[in-house]
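As the next step, I selected for study a record pairing a protein sequence with its backbone structure tokens, which the following lines show:
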Amino acid sequence: MPQHPASIFIMDIQNSSAEGMGEELSAYLEKMVKWIKTWTNDEVIVKHRRGDEIILIANGYSTAYEIAHFISVIWNLPDNPPYFGVTFGDINRELKEIDIETWIHPMIKLAREANESLKKEGDNRSQFKFYIKENRAEVQLLMNSLLLMHQKLVNEQTDLQKMVFSLFEIFNQQRKVASILGKSPSTISSHFKKGSGEELRMIFINLIIVLNSLQQKEFPDSHPALPKLQQSIRTYLQQHISEWYSKEEGKGNL
């Protein structure tokens, strides 16, 4: 039976049991599922279930992590940040043949275990953790070490530095971010650098390069499953900025 490169994330939310948050969180997750389907042209399996959980199965080793990254970038419920158990590997079915409610596969277990591991780490947890099959233990160690460093840099950002990074990650233009925030490009550049924006982008880009390289070695004839995924996500979010960015949130003494 032919094998296919795939990736999975299971996402949970911190403090999701807080009183009065249930309906708001549920509506927000439903909106996120709708966005993911739009970003990917419905070429992934994604479902909101178990109250505060989203599960995603996608073709390609890097796809799940790429989508998780952008969810974390635009997330605007600061008291309820998401965290992701992520895995990648090989499956023997095409996505259209999978029933997400009944499908049993070792990769689902790995993503679940990664998610549960993060849950036990408490409020200072990393947002992402990879669990992958045992013959890639060294890769898992290095990737999760990078993600711990990524989280340390995020934790050190001020709220304004987080906002600058989010806008820059979506628009990829210093002048555009400056225009949105009503500040000079030099001010935006300063906050991007002080907020370790360059290092955060490097970690994300390098992890995607590694994932695509691993896929290429296992499947020499394969290509990134959704080659224009990042472009699709950025274009959608640029066109719908009011849905994830509030000018009130962007105000402050930059």
Notes: The beta strands are 4-13, 45-49, 53-59, 82-91, 128-130.
